UniProtKB/TrEMBL annotation:
GO terms for cellular component: cytosol; nucleus. Residues 39-68, 80-99 are annotated as: Disordered. It is found in: Cytoplasm. Residues 47-56 have a biased composition (Basic residues). This is Programmed cell death protein 4.
Length: 455
């Protein structure tokens, strides 16, 4: 037994000298059978060998032992890359994590952690199992009115119905679609007839794009109920609403039965008057065809020929009645201030064709009143007279005395004081016909002698 123990000790020392680690020695020793502690050999059997000094351990650490309680020195740290001072050298790990000034792998800060520590100060229990849903806040009719009112006011400036349809489609939900008709008509009641015509066109273009026939009828129902309040600001509100209802029926936006059988349970007197107005317009002979002009023939959207014809009829009516106030009202109803030069042109041509002093006086008084009331601007007045000056070569073919009548009419307007000096200076002059008594009466052109042809 002592011989086996001695051989085992010699094998351990040989393995340590060859660089075998202590873990391998311990693992190998675990399989060896347990033996008793070594005893001191006899003097004759003693092998004289220099004893190897074991590694000195700290007093607080317990040195590892093998299965035979033999003390094995710690692992040698000579070739280890691990820092010996207890702190790292700031080098990154194999996977790229760690290192000086680095916490984890690049991009790990955007990856959600699967497991969070409840003791972490940033831990929030409400962050787990949360499902976010889109919530659209409900818009009240008052808030919706404030949103869409600028859209309708801008429409009166540019007249683009497609732009309005896109804006209303983004701002409107299904419960608010009936408000489009009611708000548009309420705003149009405070504006001029041309804007009401644009509103009727807008309702027709929005039909089946943004609003349906049901939405339009619901909007009219709201207006019929609110007529007692609307009439306070707009006394003619029942008539205006009746025109809108009749125009919507003519444009096939609502069925004709709505006029006779509205869905409003209790109709007030103003609502009844509005429906009667719509029924009267629809029952007229060829009423549906004339409903295109329910808001008048004026406005910048009308063709030029129609506006010119209206101005001619206006002047003829004025010559019959000599009512300047009514003529001014009709001119304002046309709503074409940029086309007033046509009115001046027609008035001057009418004065030249009449060859009547009374007609000249009446037309001069009308032009002066329009200038004094600032209905026709000085620029439009000058352009109208200049157009007459440019067309005198054609006018004189129909009116031989056109130059004489123009001279007399310009002189009358100059005395009235509404013509500029520039207009008076630009008046064309035509040379008078020279008579025989004015210098060359006895002079005749000599006759050219004729020579007979020789046969």
């Amino acid at each position: 037994m002592e011989k086996v123990t001695l051989e085992r000790k010699m094998d351990v020392e040989a393995m340590l000298e060859d660089g075998v680690s202590e873990d391998e020695i311990v693992a190998e020793g675990a399989t060896a059978p347990k033996v008793e502690l070594m005893k001191k050999p006899a003097d004759g059997e003693r092998v004289k060998r220099k004893a190897k000094r074991l590694v000195k351990h700290n007093s607080g650490d317990r040195a590892p032992t093998n299965s035979m309680d033999f003390v094995v020195p710690h692992r040698r740290w000579k070739n280890s890359r691990r820092s010996r001072n207890g702190y790292g050298r700031g080098l990154p790990k194999k996977g790229g994590a760690g290192g000086k000034g680095v916490w984890g792998l690049p991009g790990s800060e955007i990856i959600e952690e699967d497991f969070e520590d409840q003791n972490d100060p940033n831990y929030d229990s409400d962050d787990k199992n949360i499902e976010l849903k889109e919530v659209i806040p409900e818009v009240t009719p008052e808030e919706y009115y404030k949103r869409v009112e600028p859209i309708f006011l801008e429409y009166y400036e540019h007249g683009d119905t497609l732009d309005v349809a896109q804006s209303l489609y983004e701002e409107t939900t299904d419960p608010l679609r009936p408000l489009i008709t009611s708000i548009a008509i309420e705003i149009a009641m405070d504006h001029k007839p041309s804007h009401r015509e644009m509103t009727s066109v807008l309702i027709s273009d929005l039909y089946w794009r943004v609003i349906s026939s049901r939405d339009i009828t619901n909007g009219f129902d709201m207006l019929l109920k609110n007529l007692p309040d609307l009439i306070l600001d707009t006394p003619e509100a029942p008539t205006i609403l009746g025109n809108f209802i009749a125009r919507a029926v003519a444009d096939d936006c609502i069925p004709p039965r709505y006029v006779t059988n509205p869905e409003v349970e209790e109709l007030n007197e103003h609502a009844i008057a509005a429906l009667k107005r719509a029924d009267t317009l629809l029952c007229m002979k060829k009423g549906w065809a004339h409903l295109d002009n329910v808001w008048g023939l004026g406005g910048p959207l009308r063709p030029v020929k129609i506006i010119t014809k209206q101005m001619t009829l206006l002047l003829q009516e004025y010559m019959s009645s000599r009512d300047i106030k009514e003529a001014q009202r009709c001119i304002l109803t046309l709503e074409v201030p940029h086309f007033h030069h046509e009115l001046v042109y027609e008035a001057v041509v009418m004065a030249l064709e009449s060859i009547n002093q009374s007609t000249e006086e009446a037309l001069c008084a009308l032009l002066k009143s329009l200038d004094d009331a600032c209905i026709v601007s000085p620029l439009m007045m000058e352009q109208g007279f200049q157009r007459v000056f440019d067309d005198m070569t054609d006018i004189v073919l129909d009116v031989p005395l056109a130059y004489i009548m123009l001279d007399r009419f310009i002189e009358r307007c100059s005395r009235a004081g509404f013509l500029s000096d520039k207009t008076i200076r630009n008046m064309p002059s035509r040379g008078r016909k020279r008579f025989v008594s004015e210098g060359d009466g006895g002079l005749f052109k000599p006759q050219i002698p004729t020579f007979a042809r020789d046969n």
